[in-house]
Amino acid sequence: MSMLKGANTPVPAQQVRVELCWRAGPGVPDVDASALLLASGKVRSDADFVFCDQPSHSSGAVRHEGKTTTGGEGLDRVAVDLRRVEPEIERVVLAASADGGSFGQVPGLCIRVLDSASGAELARYDSQDATVETAFVLGELYRRQGAWKFRAVGQGYSSGREGLATDFGITVDEPQAPAPAAAPSAPAPSSAPAPSPTPVIPAAPAAPPAPPAPPAPAASTAPVRLTKVTLTKDAPSVSLTKQGGISGAMRVNLSWQMRKQFRGWAAKLRRAVATHSDLDLDLCALYELTDGRKGVVQALGNAFGALHRPPYIHLDGDDRTGGSAGENLTVNLDHKDKLRRVLIFVTIYEGARSFADLDAHVTLQPQHGAPVDFSLGECAVPSPVCALALITNTGSDLVVQREARFLIPERGVSPQRTVDYAYGWGMSWTPGRK
């Protein structure tokens, strides 16, 4: 039976699993569970906040176990070992946040407390009055006379996870002004032709020097980055300006893996067009500068770009595994005023003839803003090239648009030229090699 708001009940189990549940579907925001360990009503440090990007408390008492969506039901789990909660911790607040919408758009929102050993439901609270809130405290585990109890809370925050976190003493990561960049050394003379509005791919330009290593991670006292932006078909774009991510280096990562299961007619298509060895995907970027120059950054033709001179985009290397590193490309947002638009795309160089057998994920990580990520989704056509994301400088805003657009080249037309035609870049192309 569902509890009323404000009601409480004893928790007889020593180890519990807290489940955040909702009905997923089109137009429903992504929902994340989190937990805050409180002493005297506040966290002792940012380490007392447990969520997807900081999934385990140092005491081992609270652990974020991950999210699943099965049969239209969304489920995010937090495990709590009440025996290991430190004596000074009085409450474990159980919260949720919504990305891409409010909780008024999330049907069937509830929280359940289960006995980890038996699976028996010990407490349940169904939220029924959410409207514009983007963060919610649904319940809390608290000590009373040496025992643990659960209280149904139902308190919402229209200011999102940041408002919830700061209310309990978390230091929220704020955008910072970039440090002045050191003047780069003068580039060595290059035999590459001078850029033109419609350049050809250079046959063998000298590879530019590698970009400087990213700064070392901050100490453990650094503020926790709370926000995450997930682009979907229903919410396909985000303003980097509003996110505070318009300076420093923005890392673009593409990772992938082969699908392991095949079903129905799609299985026949995948088996017909894909092989499973020596898979090589190439992350690329078409760019247009504000002075009219256009070009491409890609491994093909050794056109790796440059970070501190035009085009202010650099391709790190060529990965053939799609593992944890994947393919990485960096955009220097300190020169965003010189960029009119950048189209990030990926081609299959060898090892498969289509994306139909691949799961691919894209993450854009600005140096000073929230990460932006999205999945490509399933490809059901024989496509060897996919437009991933379009970054547009409108003059007053820097916008990332999720494309996830699988393209099919015409006979005799290269994947690169296919992307050019689809987005009206208007470049001239010649064959290139790695």
Distance between the termini: 64 Å
Helices and strands, in order, run as EEEEEEEEEEEHEEHEHEEEEEEEEEEH
Derived structural class: mainly beta
Rg, Cα atoms, Å: 25 Å
**What is the CATH class designation of the largest domain?**
Mainly Beta
Strand order of the largest sheet: 12-22-21-14-19-18-17
Q: What is the approximate shape?
A: elongated
Task: Write down the domain tally.
Answer: 2
The strand count comes to 24
Uncertain segments: 174-208, 210-222, 260-277, 319-324
CATH superfamily of the largest domain: sav2460 like domains
CATH topology of the largest domain: Lipoxygenase-1
Describe the largest sheet: 7 strands, mixed
Helix content: under 10%
Query: What is the level-2 CATH architecture name of the largest domain?
Result: Sandwich
Helix tally equals 4
| Proportion in β-strands | 35-45%
Rounded mean pLDDT is 80
| Oligomer type | single chain
Question: Can you describe this structure?
Answer:
- It holds the Pfam family TerD.
- Belongs to the CAPAB/TerDEXZ family.
- This is TerD family protein.
- InterPro entries: Stress/Tellurium_Resist (IPR051324), Tellurite_resistance_TerA (IPR017115), TerD (IPR003325).
- It comes from Streptomyces chengmaiensis.
- The strands form four sheets. A seven-stranded mixed β-sheet has the order 12-22-21-14-19-18-17, with no helix packed on it.
- By secondary structure, it is mostly beta strands.
- β10 and β11 form a beta hairpin.
- About 17% of the residues have low confidence.
- 37% of the residues are buried.
- The longest helix has 10 residues.
- It folds into two domains: 160 residues, Lipoxygenase-1; 195 residues, sav2460 like domains (Lipoxygenase-1, Sandwich), CATH 2.60.60.30.
- The protein is built from four helices and 24 strands.
- The termini are far apart.
